[in-house]
Design goal:
By secondary structure, the protein is α/β, with parallel strands linked by helices. 30% of the residues lie in helices and 22% in strands. The protein has a 5-stranded mixed β-sheet with strand order 4-1-3-2-5. The protein has a 4-stranded parallel β-sheet with strand order 6-10-9-7. Helix 1 runs antiparallel to helix 2. The longest helix is centred in the C-terminal third of the chain and has 20 residues. It is globular. The protein starts with a strand and ends in a 9-residue tail after the last helix. The model has no long low-confidence stretch (mean pLDDT 91). Pfam families: Rhodanese (PF00581), UPF0176_N (PF17773). It catalyses: uridine(34) in tRNA + AH2 + O2 = 5-hydroxyuridine(34) in tRNA + A + H2O. Belongs to the TrhO family. Catalyzes oxygen-dependent 5-hydroxyuridine (ho5U) modification at position 34 in tRNAs.
Length: 303
């Protein structure tokens, strides 16, 4: 069986977002959908998966229940269900930048279609910035892009204020996984006085879907926050796995290297884990293998 995956978001006024948690949870469970949805006063964001017909029906209901109309969705596929459960979470922001003055509904940068992105970032006057976190950048990025070396998106404003100058950096081009972080990043930078701010419409996922490998300036894989770990051109699953100990994506050469233990640790984190943590991880991994042999799924503790 093939599962369809929908990465979605929309900025919209949702003052009643707290009241939407229960009906959104119920409709997703009714359609057999798993994944996560974040809802806030500023809109909705998330990634969900299910059988194609059920997923499309759920998306239509989500648009109706929230009352925000058509939602930006990017579709991909997986041979396995990439999520363990369905979670709907009310949050202060659907993507956290930590600055209440940032509002993509008031101002936002210039959208650039994937087919036009190569020309823009090939311009020597354009500063190209990857707005994702450093562990995502390590999996893959656009050739020549700057890594702000952030561990969370909330650190992006400090990076901009300390490293960039509106008087010097006249043209900025930004990108992220699906486009949502750049909506806020571009809005923030416009507030900071940067005048010419561009961002990749639909994000890396839409670029990998629509731009052929032979024409691409993308290098490596694109990290995704589910069991696929990373995807490449055509949104095909890339050869990565996730370390259970630190959640880092692991390249093929790191799998089986000294310090790597399936379900427990990797070369980067093995030295920082206690024996108690390792023992707990080994038991969890054992339970998961037993569940797989029985044809069931070990969910672990509910959080």
């Amino acid at each position: 069986m093939t599962y369809e995956i929908a990465a979605l978001y929309k900025f919209a006024r949702l003052p009643q977002f707290q009241e939407l948690r229960a009906p959104l949870q119920a409709l997703c469970e009714r359609h057999g959908i798993k994944g996560s949805l974040l809802i806030a006063h500023e809109g909705i964001n998330g990634t969900i998966a299910g059988k194609a017909s059920a997923l499309r029906a759920a998306l239509a209901e989500i648009e109706t229940v929230t009352g925000i109309g058509e939602i930006e969705v990017k579709f991909s596929f997986s041979p396995d269900m990439p999520f363990l459960r369905m979670k709907v979470k009310p949050k202060a922001e659907i993507v956290t930048i930590g600055d209440a003055s940032v509002d993509p509904l008031e101002k936002v940068g210039i959208y650039v279609e994937p087919e036009d992105w190569n020309d823009l970032i090939s311009d020597p006057e354009v500063l190209v910035i990857d707005t994702r976190n450093s562990f995502e950048v390590a999996v893959g990025s656009f050739k020549g892009a700057i890594d702000p070396e952030t561990t969370s998106f909330g650190e992006f404003p400090a990076y901009v204020r300390s490293q960039l100058d509106p008087a010097k950096h006249k043209k900025i081009a930004m990108f992220c996984t699906g486009g949502i972080r750049c909506e806020k990043a571009s809005s923030f930078m416009l507030n900071e006085g940067f005048e010419e701010v561009y961002h990749l419409k639909g994000g890396i996922l839409k670029y990998l879907e629509r731009v052929e490998p032979e024409d691409s300036l993308w290098e490596g894989g694109c990290f995704v926050f589910d069991s696929r770990v990373a995807v490449g051109h055509g949104l095909a699953i890339s050869d990565f796995e996730t370390c259970h100990g630190c959640r880092r994506p692991l390249r093929a050469e790191e799998i089986g290297a000294p310090g790597h233990e399936e379900g427990v640790s990797c070369p980067s984190c093995v030295g920082s884990l206690s024996e108690t943590q390792k023992a707990s991880a080994r038991e969890r991994h054992r339970q998961m293998k037993l569940a797989l042999a029985r044809g069931t799924t070990h969910l672990g503790p509910q959080r």
